[in-house]
Amino acid sequence: MNLIDVYIHEVTRRLPEKNRDDIALELRSTIEDMLADDFTEQDVKEVLSELGNPAVLASNYSEKPMHLIGPRYFDVYVSLLKMIIPIAAVVALISVMAKYIFNYDENQAILNMGLLILGEGIWVIIEVFIQTFFWLTIVFAFIERVDNTKDHSPLSINGKKWTPDDLKNVAYIPRKKAISSVYVFLGLLWTAIWVTVYFNADQLVGIYHKGENGLQFVMPALNQTVLNSYWPLVIISVGLEVALALYMLLKKQWTKNVAHLNVVKEIVGTISVIVIITNVAIYNHDFLIYMSNLLNFSESTILGFIQRITIILYPIFAIWNCIDGYLKAKIRK
Amino acid sequence: MSNLLDSLSTELRRGTLTLAVLSQLQTKQYGYSLAQLLEDSGITIEQSTLYPLLRRLEKQELVESIWDKTESRPRKYYKLTDFGAEIYEKLKTEWLVNSKQLYELLKGENEDESD
């Protein structure tokens, strides 16, 4: 095989069809010019190494970029990635949670459902990340190649050249005022966990004994039928928590409206908790007897203790959460 | 450090290559003869840069090319167009002004040091 032929082929196969023959002919003529009349293979190698990597030579000819996304679009590309991925991930996570909650299967091993949501949630987030990354990269790599403008200056997010007026559109968020997407994610995770526990309380909350196969569930503390009858309250609370999470994700910082919505969520949550906890019917009577034997108090004392602790502590945390929201919303710099 | 120096001086030279090539195309040249001319004047230019550059200049209508296939080895000759000659003159003036300014700047620095 003739090295010169192969070299020329390696260059021209990377070029558009219409230029190939002309460039091939010129390249051959040049290479022969560079060689003495009687040349050895070593001479050919030297000449070819002077011309360098065929891929580089071809890219110099074609003027097509040798990068996927160049400086003109890179900043817009990264900004869009950072904007789209968290939103897409949260939407995907919520849809996974909704799927499990609405298709709730009575016979399913219960603790598994939480794990399934967690597992599929993580998988869905990874998938969303890969998909978003892939498609956005494809789109930008394409734009990079069809953009014929001579101007190579980087673009700002609105697709135009930067001007000082762009500064007016920048959302400057002080660190203490900001709501990170991790915070929102943890909030949603918490919602998923407590909903799962609530609707499966008769298999999760109660007395455990140490058995041969690890912990064994002996007796539920709560009455599932009564708990389930409060489903409208639970749906409203979940709806408010998801709405607040999405709103926070959108605003990225504590504002008055975020704080207002937070208060609505806390009020509804607190009322729901108090209504449910003060209904004596939710407690499993056997559980109260068991506890009274164990702790040497009467059943009503134990019941009162549980109720009072909840009625005092829950509102304190709720009120603190509301105030904290307004304090953060007030931060100016 | 020598790496950095290399890349900086390559960068410094890059902008002048077009001017150097245009200057030698007032008479017609083929690729290799042009490379030789530039090399003899001490201008370093990668071959893989020079030949594509010639085509780019042709596309920008600064130079025109003609194939001479009468001799044993076909050769593609390049020559400045009228438009190319005009641009070359302007670019040359620009360069002379710039280099004079830079020279003054560098000379001034030397004097400062000797103070």
TrEMBL record, chain A:
So which domain of life are we looking at?
Bacteria
- A Pfam family name for this chain? HAAS
Q: Where are the transmembrane segments?
A: 76-102, 122-143, 182-201, 229-250, 262-282, 302-323
User: Per UniProt, which keywords does this protein have?
Assistant: Membrane, Transmembrane, Transmembrane helix
The identity of this protein, by name, is: Uncharacterized protein
Q: Which organism is it from?
A: Ureibacillus acetophenoni
Show the taxonomic lineage: Bacteria, Bacillati, Bacillota, Bacilli, Bacillales
UniProtKB/TrEMBL annotation, chain B:
Every copy of the Transcription regulator PadR N-terminal domain together lies at 21-87
Under InterPro entries, the record lists: Metal_resp_DNA-bind_regulator, Tscrpt_reg_PadR_N, WH-like_DNA-bd_sf, WH_DNA-bd_sf
* Name of protein: PadR family transcriptional regulator
User: Which species does this protein come from?
Assistant: Ureibacillus acetophenoni
